[in-house]
Here is the input.
Amino acid sequence: MSKILRSQPEATGGDPPVLAHVGANLRRLRTAAGLSQAALAAAADLSRRTLVGLEAGEANLSLAGLDRLARALGTDFVTLVAAPDATRQQIDALAWRGAHPDSRAVLLGSAPARQAVELWSWTLGPGEVYQAEPDPPGWHEMIVVTAGRLRLRLADETRLLEAGDHAIYGSARAYAYENAGEGPARFMRSVVG
Here is the structure.
């Protein structure tokens, strides 16, 4: 299951977990928008219980769920998850950890585009799979494999990418990343909206 990290302290190799700042940012943005927890939960297609847990720093939510929450607040993913003193060019937040200890995704930074551009550093341990939910229509991803072998599963095709290979595809559909080797698979991912 693709969930982001809980906000409890843990050894993250220096990368702060995304949920460390979501609670305070969420409460501030929701209050500024004049929304109750129930109204925001309904607008983001989440349960009120999940929203209460997020604001308290005690809940887990998928990356796609955080995207829906940001859109319901009229903001973007980066504004919702970034530390108050972070710049968009230097976010460095651990956003996902898989079952294998080598599996992780770090949101490195973001740049303005029609909506947003995000730069990620991903590592998948042997046997690890990340199943992504579709992005909004018009969004795309660009990935380049820097080490290992990565299987990219798209709705209509599967691609095997070796170190140095890249792929560019529309991400408004279900897709998955799978480590297709015996060691860690590392890749850089840009999300363009």
Q: What stands out?
A: Residues 1-13 have pLDDT under 50 and may be disordered.
